[in-house]
Amino acid sequence: MRRIILLMSLMAASVAVAQQQSSPNGNVVLTFSLTAEGTPAYKVTYKNKPVVKESTLGFSLKKAEPTTTVNEPLTKNFRVIGEQKSTFKETWRPVWGEESEILNHYNELLVSLRQEGTNRLMNIRFRVYDEGVGFRYEFPSQKELTYFVVEEELTQFAMAGDHTAWWIPGDYDTQEYDYMESKLSEIRGLMKEAVTENVSQYAFSPTGVQTSLMMKTADGLYINLHEAALIDYSLMNLDLDDKNFVFQSHLTPDAQGAKGYLMAPCHSPWRTVMVSDDARQILASRLILNLNDPCAIADTSWIKPVKYIGVWWEMITGKSSWSYTNDLPTIDLNTVDYSKTKPNGTHAANNEKVRRYIDFAAQHGFDQVLVEGWNTGWEDWFGHKKDYVFDFVTPYPDFDIKALNEYAHSKGVKLMMHHETSGSTRNYERHLTAAYELMNKYGYNSVKSGYVGDILPVGEHHYSQSTINHYLYAIKEAAKHKIMVNAHEAVRPTGICRTYPNMIGNESARGTEYEAFGGNKVFHTTILPFTRLQGGPMDYTPGIFETEMKYVNPNNNNQIRTTLARQLALYVTMYSPLQMAADLPENYEKFMDAFQFIKDVPVDWQKSVYLEAEPGRYITIARKDKHSEDWYVGCTAHEGGHNSVLSLDFLDKGKQYEATIYADAKNADWKKNPKAYTITKQKVNAKTKLKLKAANGGGYAIKIRKLAN
Description:
The protein starts with a strand and ends with a strand. Helix 7 runs parallel beside helix 8. The protein contains 12 helices and 37 strands. It is α+β, with helices and mostly antiparallel strands. Among the domains are: 289 residues, Beta-galactosidase, Chain A, domain 5 (Distorted Sandwich); 199 residues, Aldolase class I (TIM Barrel, Alpha-Beta Barrel).
């Protein structure tokens, strides 16, 4: 690791109220100032174009110490008492990632403020990167402000025009919405359409949206608003003044309406503004990761990327069930005797079926098999606000946990644990140690956790401060047991996987499962890398080959809005160190030639090159395997399809390669002919240009293998 820190200036006395800091390449300029009322403000430009116009900063408080300053907002009457500039440059190596080395290079401006009359201290730290700005509030130790309760954070992001945006509604409990594309001025009118029936109804404002928020200006700037290092704080959504195009932060409240309980010294998460005139640079940015602390786990040798299959898709499609019996309308885990109940005949997590999945995983080189519905309690787990549903250690009668793990290990495969909390964080923490110890006993090293339903205790939200603290508590406790965590329905990630790389996956958006419920919009996978994936990888569960659900479950008439070739491409375009081949083994056996790409594609990368990108339209990415000289390319396209002319100049010059191209057939179409694909091979090198076409809702995938000299 290489670090260079250069202190450029330090002033402890009063300084000028307007201060600037630019990015290392000079394209991004951050300006800090105080308004006439002493309100902190900032603005951002990119190549002299406005990105964020003058926007004010501060907090309103519900309670503060001493009592003489109760309800005195941290919004005005500030004076600059110090300013410090510095430069930082390092190259660090992630445990897993889209590249083996990441450059962290920024210029910093730290502004120290004192509020006249109260003498309270507040610092604002800005870090200016070539691709944008991160800033956070910092409260040093002080007698004037020790314990305080946030009523609202008042951070503004004033946009310079009526930009095109890709957005989902502001919600305290879910990100599982289909994205909308509209002008900022149209968000209010489209909000009702955006809030669909199959997600919670906590949208707090007719113009409230979630981050990561992607926008494009009329003159071709791409702007992304998000946050980094969300720890011991509430999630930030954005309220929009759609007359003036000004966003203001809106934190998720707790059951009492408070937005955060803080004790100095402390700081907020980073607020981030990414900007470029090239959409590919938004995808290439590592600003979110860089704003997080370095890895906190001393020994990371046990953290390994995972490619897995699972007894899951047939339950999602309705073919099978999580529960063992239909005899019990309610469950009391202290008294129920499953041996005296009648099996329903559709329980998927049974010994015979799990062995079938283990055999398939072993035959085709998969690391693990996820088994959901293995444990008691699924008959009465959802929607009743029950504190105690699962104990996370007791299997159903038809799931022999000891024998199945021994069978899996004999085949060189591990089982992946599943913990559905039903939203009861208190109950999960009650059982967490025993649950992790059970995993250690039987050789599990990864767990998929779930938080479906309303959060308990009653009144809390998925994204309030206490629940966010719970998610991190589970990750830290898992690390003590050398367990990797893939959390579903948890808060969307904000780069903390740099600090805790045992957090190898998250959901926190509409994944493939929604395709079985009625479908995602065709352009969905061309937006997620610009939004949800900015903060960390997603367990999207791609690889569905049988796109018509009626062939899995005759009672399900839904169709996945994708071609088969695009399903292959998603393993490249939707980055994750945890990748699932989500379809049924029997469906893969119908298309073994296409399945070969899923078997081959890595889940850890040495280098990534972003070849083409336009949010909502198309994404094409090339990635080099971390452990070989092979490259993989993936393209995902919207309903209009996409024509590519790909230059392979990222390949080593003077070397020859063989490209295996998995493409949409000429007559492929996500709706009319989704399973039409071609597989061709050709010799290529760094001078080659490939002309390829992605069908409507389609894509292509390429494996490029270096040939021996």
